[in-house]
Structures
1.
Amino acid sequence: MEITNHRWSEKRLLKERQEVLKQWPTGEQIIDIDEAIEYHKSMPIEHNASFVLAKAKKDKKTLVQPRGGVNIVDDHIQLLKTLVTEGGADLLPTTIDSYTRNARFDEAQRAIEMGTKKGNGSILNGLPAVNVGVNELRKIKEQTDAPLVARTCAPYPRLLADIMLAGGYSSVEGGGITCLMPYTKTDSLGKSIERWQYVARLMRYYYDHGGIELHRESYGPCTGVLIPPCITIAISILECILDCEQGITNYSLGYGMGGNMTQDIVAIKVMEDLCKEVLEAKGYKNIELTTYFHQYMGAFPKDEEKALSLIMLGATIGALSNASLIVTKSTHEAHGIPTAANNAQGVRVTRNIIDMLSGEKYGSNDEMKKEEIMLKKATKSILDRVFEIGDGDAALGTVRAFKAGILDMPFSPSNYNKNLLISHKDLRGAIRISNPGNVPVPQEVMLHETKKIEERAKRHNIKPGYNMLLEDILAFTGRN
């Protein structure tokens, strides 16, 4: 049976939840969902991500959130405290380890026990939230003073999200498309969307039975490598629609930095404007939309000064785009998992640039207007075709569109992705589509994209292809 975009009944949610909670013993700790709702009611409103983001948007402020997560709870608490005291983070992350993201809880447990036995401390690449359980998560909540964000990026999010929500987390990052296509090869896209429907419907339950406004966020960067803005925006809007159907009313559209200031600033504006337009047309009312700008997610320079410069560029673009929040990086991205101090530095530098640019605007010009027109046309064409092939259904359309190559994510390992679309950078570092594959990019837009790539090819005496692609991937590393 094909996936469809229809609101789950409460009966279906609770029936499936009974099975979800059996996936790991800590599921027994959260059987009483009403107790979890009461726990959220006891939290200060300033610890609710929906409230903080809505207020920031009203006040025209850009917030800052880093990434970060380690597998020892006390160490994670210290990490989060450092991000606040030394960095000034507005929302606090809990990045989840790879085993937990894929519901491999037994392997996560073995890694925890091995680390404890050998005295190696944190050996996972994030917090194994399911294994540590709700009481430990509430310990994190009660020793921090900002909204907690579950940065899951999980193809298998159900028990993970359930436990983290019960633990006091008020925001969950991820989605059925953006947490599957960049990370897995054989997992079903339709099943992934269905698992994330569970998460969104569960979050709506908190509102229906307790008035708790919870926040969802699409993971904008996707694979983080040469993703054309029209692809990012179309996917982010589709994930928003899927969540709104399940009752989510506070949603952040995600976008990953490409590196060209004009293109990225225009993309943030187009993403929000077009999403509002589509939601209105689909009948979704009173949705609080915000935007997340992710600092560069591609290959980072090893040189610390170059890395810091790249972070500063991302901070500048995010601030001038008026994004609701900037997700920061650290100068040690190319070396491995950053320390708390490195992470805090990225937050602090980003906050300083936001403050310095307060009130500044990136003035509109003919180039920006042209970019906006072309980006809207390309994104609308893709979305129109997705809805057409799905008979108006966003979930069905998404699955069929990836199968047909109408949606195509560069460098995705997934068998559900055609990988026909090829993109390059132009002379100014903007991402352009070289070969659209089966993506329905209008002819006018393709002529514009082709012209931009040809200008670079002529100037640098390089043809579109492998060598140009390699240059693009390594553009900010200093190694090309």
2.
Amino acid sequence: MRGVPISKMSKESAQALIAMRRGIRKARKLSIQTGTPFYVWKNGKVVDLNAAGPKKQHRHRGK
């Protein structure tokens, strides 16, 4: 659902996306606290986001 504004999604899809993002944030925070890897699929490769150290997370600001 990349590129589709939440306002254009069905209510159920928007709620699912919001919950998924919340879960991702919590998992990343936990991995930083415990010093464990946080693997994601990025540009066709599996990447550990914690390998380079934690970055400041940007919050998406909708209109």
3.
Amino acid sequence: MSCEDGWAAINLEMPRRIPRTKHSAQTYWDLIKAVTGTWWSATMLARIALATILIGAAGLAEEAMRAQATEDAAMPAFQMYLTRVGATCVSFLRPAQPETYLGYRIVEQEPERATRPLRAHASHPKAEPAETPSLESPQAPPVPAGEYTDDWQTAHDANGVRFATDKDGVAWFEYPEGEGMTRRLTFRAVADGIEMWMELSSESAIPGAYVVQQCFRLSGETNDEWRHHIALVPELSEYDLWAAEQPPRSLTFVRQGDAWLQVPPVERGVRYDTPAGVELARMQGAESKATAAIPHGLIVRQAADGSSVVGLFWERTTRVSNHHPADCLHSFVDLGPIEAGGSRTVRGKVYWMAGTKDELLEHWRADFAINQSQ
């Protein structure tokens, strides 16, 4: 092989002819030197060519890794699925960890009404105004394979109940409330959780408070198995913790003043009223039945080892509660008043992040900065 053809091979260029290298010819060094006029051996040329191929392969591998990293960065932090149509439940999971997922029930119990608006909402924390997102991609995420995911859906449209989700981490759910009302929730995945918009539209006027219950589900291994179709997050399950250690310890907290207040670890629901909740009770001619009063509607649950934490918050919250046996957290959100033919939209967020409740608190303060005090 000539020097010209050798250099062409090293540079991965096609020569005028196909060169042939016979590695055993290295034992005839004097002949090779005389023919090629070079001091390079055939073995050395072969090694250089092999090194060039390996370097090229490493470059291709690096390019593939960069492409995968770009794809992973573009993937949303969470995907959303309709997991129980009749119970109006959706589930949130991390694509990289599909074995654990949170549940969220949109319609639960009958709304609580009052004839007048609640004035206390004026001082409740809220977010800066933001447009409700819409689905941008026609593609839905794949349903993950799992023991409890066989009935999960990415689209639904029957009997007025509608749901859609896309691969970019946006989903919406629409439900006919009755009496000419429609409720719609929109979800958007962000790094630390799920941003939410809840809209109630009404053909007729709603003159006062209209309070709906939202249920955030955190079932573990020891909860009833049918609940695993909606939520399965053992590290945040109080039932799992109680099965493993006694006396029972609560993982759930609310804010009171400038400190965290730990919710008692009991089977029955424990209720905490915001100023709007206290006002609503008095408007109904009764004293609040809450365990304690709280300044706003943030409620969180932190893993026993402090490694992860979830939280739920809605603007215009009247009360929150910790309720078993669903291992869930509740927010009661006021969507009234509404003029005839009008609507009201409120903002909320589900947090799910690594870290502690104090770190979550800082995220919440940044997200709902208006009227922020505690």
4.
Amino acid sequence: MNPKEAKQESERLYDQAFYEDDPKKQITILSKAIKLHPENADAYFERGNIYEDLKELDKALEDYDKAILLNPKAADVYCNRGSLYHDLKEFDQALEDFNKAILLNPKDPDNYYNRGNLHEDLKELDKALEDYNKAILLNPEDPHNYCNRGNIYQDLKQFDKALEDFDKAILLDPKDPDNYCNRGNIYKDLKQFDKALENFNKAISLEPKDPDFYNNRGVLYCNIKQFDKALEDFSKLILLSPKDADAYNNRGNTYNDLKQFDKALEDFNKAILLSPNDAEIYTNRGNVYSNLKQLDKALEDYNKAILLDTKTSKAYNNRGHLLKEQGEYIAALKDAEKSLELDPQDAYTYSTLAEIYGEQGETELFYKNIEKAFELNCPVWELLEDKAYNEYKNTPRFKKLLAKYQKEI
């Protein structure tokens, strides 16, 4: 077979590969095409795509490199290699490839979409927003662009704009369950719980085997104190994803809310077994031990959480509350102040501060912090069994605050 015939046969095999459903057979056909004509850049590119789908990433990267070497102006190859680098968390190389793809083909919306994904993962939200805007400008009929931009607006707390984007995504693709789930999360953040539930139900009806949807609905049920329904959803989540530590963690929290502490401990122990370096799980197990008055074990878990993640505000707050219970007010105050440094909007930390000051007879500091807790939507009326409130809860001043904020919340 002369070179011309070999090239023609290579191109024929390349076309044939698209009619084959089995990816391994596709690879065999494309490999024959490459052997016949080693300069067939398209064959390397397509084989690289298949290797990437099969999670054989080293082989995919090798093929993309070869395709670029043979055709350095192929924007789509740079784009796909950039996505592969993104998956490999080689972010600088990913950005370089996306920039090159845009330089070669500035009118392809996928290039901006993929670069936007990278900026989003890097928490460069303004840059991500700019890329999604450009992708929408180039292709206003792609629902994925609106969905991703909606996620950015949600992160930026621009909920009205996020809702507009998710509405648009649903209009363009009413059968994509992710759009309903995302819109449900917006409604949950806006405390429009009926609408949130409606959207989560729709997502589950469209895709009843997606564990994330049950997780989101379960969290919503916890927010509205329907713990039995939350348990059902988290149990379904565990059935679908039995190695998901977050699933056991969430169900453990629900059992804790229901005061089923033995079951809560069982779930947190399982979660720790699956994810032994997750600070949040130790914090939550510490809460159960605290409820069981096993304060040494609670303290051990809070210490472990802080050791794993020095920026976990809840662990500092909860340890501070425990130390307050033990009368160690200086250490408790230090932890509460650290919690606020990490999260200045944590309502429960203000209630902890109020309790620390209240137990020491610092009346004005008690009221200063408890009012701040109320303002940030802390349900203080659920905390009144704590001895710190004994001196205050029956006073006119406290009753006035309670009446005002309990009605608002």
